[in-house]
Amino acid sequence: MSEAFDLTKEFASCVFTEEKMERYVPSSEIVKYRRCLETGESLSMETADAIAKGMKEWAISMGATHYCHWFQPMTGGTAEKHEGFISPVGRGRIIMDFSGKELVKGEPDASSFPSGGLRATFEARGYSAWDPTSYAFIVDGSLCIPTVFFSYSGESLDQKTPLLRSTRALNRQALRILKVFGDKETRSVSPMAGAEQEYFLIDKDLFNEREDLRICGRTLFGAKPPKTQELNDHYFGSIKPRVSAFMKDYEKELWKLGVLAKTKHNEVAPSQHEMAPIYSDCNSANDQNQLTMNILRQVADRHNLVCLLAEKPFDGVNGSGKHNNWSIVTDKGKNLISPGKTPSQNAQFLLFLAAFVSAVDEYQDLLRCSVAYAGNDNRLGGHEAPPAIISIFVGTELQGVIDSIIQDRSYDSAVPNPIRIGIDSMPVIPKDTTDRNRTSPIAFTGNKFEFRMPGSSQSISAPNTVLNTIMAQKLCEYANILEQTDAKNINNVLHDLIKDEFTKHSRIIFNGNGYDSSWVEEARRRGLSNYATTAEAMRHYLDPKNIALMEGNGVMSESEMRARKEIYVEKYCNVISIEANTLKDMVRREIIPAVSAFEGELCRTISYMKEAFTTVQEVSDVEHDTCTSLMKCNKKMVQLERQLERALAKASASGADDMSGYFHDKVLSLMEKIREVVNEAEVLTPDRFWPYPTYSQLLFSE
Ligand code: ADP
Ligand code: MG
Known about the structure:
Blueprint: H1 7-10, H2 18-24, H3 27-39, H4 45-61, E1 66-71, E2 79-84, E3 86-90, E4 93-96, H5 100-104, E5 105-106, E6 126-130, E7 137-139, E8 142-151, H6 160-180, E9 189-203, H7 204-208, H8 211-216, H9 241-256, E10 261-266, E11 272-277, E12 280-281, H10 282-302, E13 305-308, E14 322-330, H11 343-362, H12 364-369, H13 374-377, E15 392-393, H14 395-406, E16 442-444, E17 449-451, H15 461-482, H16 490-505, H17 517-526, H18 534-538, H19 544-552, H20 558-612, H21 616-619, H22 621-654, H23 659-684, H24 695-699
Parallel strand pairs: 1-8, 15-16
Antiparallel strand pairs: 1-2, 3-4, 5-6, 6-8, 7-8, 9-11, 9-12, 9-13, 9-14, 10-11, 14-17, 16-17
The structure holds adenosine-5'-diphosphate and magnesium ion.
């Protein structure tokens, strides 16, 4: 039997937590360090040296030999460059060395990371700087130090910096509002995130046989098997032993890294699963989600499985998302997205709710952009994922309250007895009402908003950066009004403000079925935007109001946004280009020859039949028809494959203004046509001829 795993002892054993800092760093230095965290001042070299020394001692006691600045470049993943602690002291001897300077600042060569033009070629240097708000941890013998990554001229080149800036902006504005409500105890507020991670598990040997999975992480063709998720027998079903062993293994790894992995279950599609941690502040939730994705992949490998994080690895089968649960919590543990018990608490909640509703309405496009990339385009609007139209579900009870405010009547009757915000009580809003609407892109679930559009492979930094910033913006606008109001008028002003905001922005609230085609029409009537693709969404990223928002809240400068747009668009085009080339290669080198080989066998059968029987025509009908259909498929595949080649060549030659539009309209649409023909050929070709594992083999392999 394997040794028992003592969770309470092992939890965060590989993390340099506060408790470990207290053990390894002199308390006088910890006091200075905490003061810097609070005030935002920079750390003195002395303190940095003391912390570095403590970190090193702890890391070495854990068997670490290296350290690395762990950062999150614009690739969407993480990057790390490992340096040994090793330092020679002469006569063939070494010591283990690590200084405050090395802790605080690194200098990875930025030239190989996407910079969107922010890094001039003559200045390739990029810097990584320690983010002391996130804990260092040990993975595979290296002490990993969470860092931000920026250019020589100080512009952010990563996902983390804007997120950190947005949490600061939200903190600043939320505190102003709390002050208006007479809150004297709250010293800081933090946005919280809980990211539910969906994924597929596939047998590694089968995975290796498919070039598309290996290179693109998703299948580019595959006929629908007789059974996928129709019987709903996988969702929450009992977990198979091989999968369960994998889950137990990754949980241990995550727990050791201080990730509060809590929930695990089978998802709707065969081979699809989900893990969810307990929520934490956005910054560590973001770091921990990156770690989680890495660990899921590594642990799967040990079990001869592959963890697919792609949004839509299989066409016609449910895709994978990453539901981002979001709320705002004070340092005293009070959730500001939770309805309170007293009229005044409720007034405060309604103000935050109004801010959220109007923020999402005003910045629909930016929120849509935060989840726009090639992989997620395959999933959004796929009738198992939210549509590309942004809306908010609030549920019946809260809708009742909002309606009564807008219509100046009491919430529980049509009698004109207006509810007075700040004076009257609200009905109790049940947490997590049972009529939860899974078709909505953003749902209020009692004390948080669940943003369901992010895709399974993406970093949660961009969506949370936008959520934090748009909320900060609205709270700032409200604070500007309320701070000017004297105490005796405050309830009236508050009432009018909330009423006005709900009246103006109610169009973004939709409690119906988001998958229904009539919603598209209804949303259009309401004037809501509907950007089905990344290409369409990204056209609005640099709208003046979005630049003003990001600049005004100190989250991103205009040049940082321009660079980001360039990176996103280029990545979109690159992903599609790689997929198109992979598809071309598979069709030309494997599928067309395989279909030809089977045609050969059919022709031989037909000619044997001709020899054996006199009434040839009748007996060879089946073989003849199959062969003719396959010949048609092959011909179409050759034609389409050539068209695809020309489209790709033209893309690189033309350098069109709207490259993403070109890739969507010309390249992706041809790939879809090829997919159809390949699927047609697949169902006519026996397994022994078909060169790739089929959907039924892949989806029922774990
Ligand atoms: P479901 O699948 O029913 O939506 P899960 O339990 O799978 O629920 O996931 C819910 C996620 O929301 C968890 O990560 C949980 O920690 C997180 N969560 C709960 N409360 C909050 C909150 N106040 N703020 C942010 N996230 C939260
Ligand atoms: Mg869940």
